Amino acid sequence: MRIENPYIPKLATIEKIITETWDTKTFRAVFKDEELRESFTYEPGQFQEISVFGVGEAPFCLTSSPTRKGFVEFSVKKIGSVTSALHEIDEGATIGIRAPLGNWFPYEEFKGKDLWFIGGGIGMAPLRSLLNFCLDNRKDYGKVNIIYGARSSGDLCFTYEFDEWQNSPNTELFLTIDKEEEGWNKNVGFVPAYVMDLKPSPKNAIAITCGPPIMIKFTLQNLKELGFEDNQIWTTLEMKMKCGIGKCGRCNIGPKYVCVDGPVFSYAQLKELPPEY
Amino acid sequence: MEAKVILKQDLAAWIDALVKQYEVIAPVTEDGVVVFRPVSGLSEMAIEGMVGPAKSLREHFTPPTETLFDYKLEDLSAEVIPPENEERHRVIFGARACDAAALLYVDAVYSNVEPIDTAYFMRREKTYLVGLFCDKPAWSCFCTEVGDFLTNPVAMDVYLTDLGNRYYAEPLTPKGEELIGLGNFRPADENDKAANEEIRRKALERLPKRAEHETACLSYDWDHPVWIELAKKCLSCGACAFLCPTCHCFDIQEHPKLKKGSRYRCWDTCQFEKFTLMASGHNPRETRKERTRQRVFHKFKYSQERYCMLGCVGCGRCIAACPVNIDIRKVLEELEKTAVAK
């Protein structure tokens, strides 16, 4: 039996590049193989390994929703060698993709519940996949609340979707930035503090959060204070991953590997792990 | 399967027969130490009175660097070229029981979740192991503390014991019987069996007794003072991990040459500071305290929780090679004092 080499990426073309902020771009890629382009699917929360040939490979969450077919998207903050190379490339360039990898948000369990998406900066990227998935299956979920914060208004990603988000039925978008800014008429303050101001009710609700470690830490504390149970809080730990298939041993936290047992974890699951994330 | 015996005078002819059909990898002395290398006959082999091999079999299953694929770039397009599969079947002759047992652990890691690591398993499937009973354990050996595979070998096809003028050979798989069929073996008699038992008994006398690491290790103390002591001594050189037959972690790197290049993987270790350093600057295991704890926990706690086996086969290479004399047996003793007390 011939088994496919799991380290070999599929070739894809960058179809569209959206400049999100001064240091972040979103890339839309389509597989070169037509059959794969048609058949490819994934779940919200899964990730992909993106190759820039000649530079290397790095993991990025699938930012797009599987309800929107024919392409994959990923958002990239310019921070290391692969991300810098991605910021240099143009539309039409060939990249490699290994996907879909990892687990996903248990969206079936979330059905019928109010959802609180709590994102900070580029941490909104993995949440966007689930958010757009829920909005495309709007009747399955209760009220959808989006708390999204960044350092400044210029650091907010996906601004071109804000109208769609807040105009969806029974959906509300709460924006916040760290410091006062001329012309800014929304909230000012850190995300965890804004969560306390908005006081989401834990009754029949799920909170899904992602952002810088410090934001997640205080958001978790505040959600607990508001009465959220450990299994009502979900996050995604996009960290340390390399091979993406549980072999290279880089992303283990205790007996778990982020790349195969995650990247999505409930707070209840995280508490079982050693504090190494 | 019936045990057999081969006289030492017939060994060379058996090796020659194996070499005709297989690539034979056997212990040789290289720069004064025993390592496993391809051989063309018995005269090259350092099998008689063999001391512990300096390196395990690891490099023959997961090479220190291994090309994952080559690529060619053309304007905006790219072509990916997978590596050629190794077609030749191999016999590893003289493998130690600890190193063979380590393969079962690496098998678990590379097949625990889909997709399996194809390059590794292709090599595993095409490699047959002729083991050699370890009758001269080194001072650092503690295989009997972590398993009974010295007397109940795993992952081998044939198990040999040196009886002086002859080798006692136990075929453990049908493939092992086939390999034995290529040599001038005779059935083992009662004398052979008794001699084999005696040699094993004597070796076991020299080794430490079975410890209860399995239960003790699961309650290891995260904040134990031994981690601080280890951090003071450890140099983060990684010798322990690179000589370890169960360590399997790797990095993935790119080797670009203008319009073409290759992506490869290479050995890496959790003992290196940059192993867990992320592009953002965040490092969950920033100090040696966290990294030494990770290594011990991974082998004796996490591996049990994930793969239901210890991640250590007691080969003792980490102890023998450590430049600052860190002895994992003593670390375990310290940890188990409090683990048992709990």
Task: Label this structure with key terms.
heterodimer; A: 277 residues; alpha/beta; 7-stranded mixed β-sheet; 6-stranded antiparallel β-sheet; 9 helices; 15 strands; globular; B: 342 residues; alpha+beta; 8-stranded mixed β-sheet; 12 strands; 22% strand
Number of strands of chain A: 15
The helical percent of chain A reads: 10-25%
DSSP helix fraction of chain B:
25-40%
- Helix count of chain B, per DSSP? 13
β-sheet strand percentage of chain B: 15-25%
Low-confidence stretches of chain A: none
- N-to-C span of chain B: 46 Å
Strand coverage percent of chain A: 25-35%
Architecture blueprint of SSEs:
The complex is a heterodimer of chains A (277) and B (342).
Chain A: E1 10-19, E2 24-31, H1 34-39, E3 47-52, E4 56-61, E5 72-77, H2 81-88, E6 94-101, H3 107-110, E7 114-120, H4 124-136, E8 144-150, H5 162-167, E9 171-177, E10 187-188, H6 191-198, E11 205-210, H7 213-225, E12 233-236, E13 252-253, E14 256-257, H8 258-261, E15 264-266, H9 267-271
Parallel strand pairs in A: 7-8, 7-11, 8-9, 9-10, 11-12
Antiparallel strand pairs in A: 1-2, 1-6, 2-5, 3-4, 3-6, 12-15, 13-14
Helix pairs in contact in A: 6-7
Chain B: E1 4-7, H1 11-21, E2 23-30, E3 33-39, H2 58-61, E4 65-74, E5 77-81, E6 90-95, H3 97-111, H4 118-125, E7 127-132, H5 143-146, E8 158-162, E9 166-171, H6 174-180, E10 186-187, H7 190-206, H8 213-217, H9 226-233, H10 239-243, E11 250-257, E12 260-267, H11 288-307, H12 317-321, H13 328-341
Parallel strand pairs in B: 2-6, 6-7, 7-8
Antiparallel strand pairs in B: 1-9, 1-10, 2-3, 4-5, 4-12, 8-9, 11-12
Please give a structural write-up.
- The complex is a heterodimer of chains A (277) and B (342).
- Chain A has 9 helices and 15 strands.
- Chain A has 277 residues and is of the alpha/beta class.
- In chain A, the strands form 3 sheets. Chain A has a 7-stranded mixed sheet, with helices on both faces.
- In chain A, helix 6 (191-198) packs parallel to helix 7 (213-225).
- Chain A is globular and about 50 Å long.
- The mean pLDDT of chain B is 93.
- Chain B has helices at 11-21, 58-61, 97-111, 118-125, 143-146, 174-180, 190-206, 213-217, 226-233, 239-243, 288-307, 317-321, 328-341; strands at 4-7, 23-30, 33-39, 65-74, 77-81, 90-95, 127-132, 158-162, 166-171, 186-187, 250-257, 260-267.
- Chain B is α+β, with helices and mostly antiparallel strands.
- An 8-stranded mixed sheet of chain B has the order 3-2-6-7-8-9-1-10, sandwiched between helices.
- The longest helix of chain B has 20 residues, at 288-307.
- Classes of the chains: A alpha/beta (277), B alpha+beta (342).
